[in-house]
Amino acid sequence: MYKKLIHKHWLPFVLGAFSVILFYSTFIIWNEGEPTEISRPEAVKEQADNEVELLFETVFADGISQEETRKEAINSLQDFWYEYSNWQVVDQKKGFVHFKQELLDLSPEVKQEGYLGLSDDQHLILYTGQPEAKHIIQTYDHLSEYSLASSVKLALTKGMKVSSVDELNAIVDKKG
């Protein structure tokens, strides 16, 4: 009697065991492609290796320089160098690049509130702010070195508004 019972139920038992083994092996194979806890720090390290801190230094014709710092991920070195091809590389270290660019333009600060005037010792100066509270940006030669019209000299004592490099150069380049 036991022999008939085992023989009769043997096939469903084997099929059930085979389906359980097949289910677990499929689950194991399916999860093999996902990163495990051991490999995740390496992925983070790889991501941090292509991140670079960039320092952009812009020097304007009036002598003012501005700096901007930012971090950027580099996916392609060729694209990275092409993007910043109009900048000069000043310094480069692992994870850091210092770029510099000289512009033949006035800084935004001088464009907005820049004046040409005279210092107490009669030097031509470029400054920002009102004449009473001026912040000197650049000092040029003594006024006697310049061949300026008397109306321009009078305007310089009060402070002349400067909003472009051409205006600045027109006065600064008039030497006697």
Automatic annotation (TrEMBL):
Pfam families for the chain: BofC_C (PF08955), BOFC_N (PF08977)
Domain Bypass-of-forespore C N-terminal: 52-101
Domain Bypass of forespore C C-terminal: 105-173
Keyword Cell inner membrane: no
Keyword Transmembrane helix: yes
Transmembrane segments: 12-30
Keywords associated with the record: Membrane, Transmembrane, Transmembrane helix
Record-given protein name: Forespore regulator of the sigma-K checkpoint
Species this protein is from: Shouchella lehensis G1
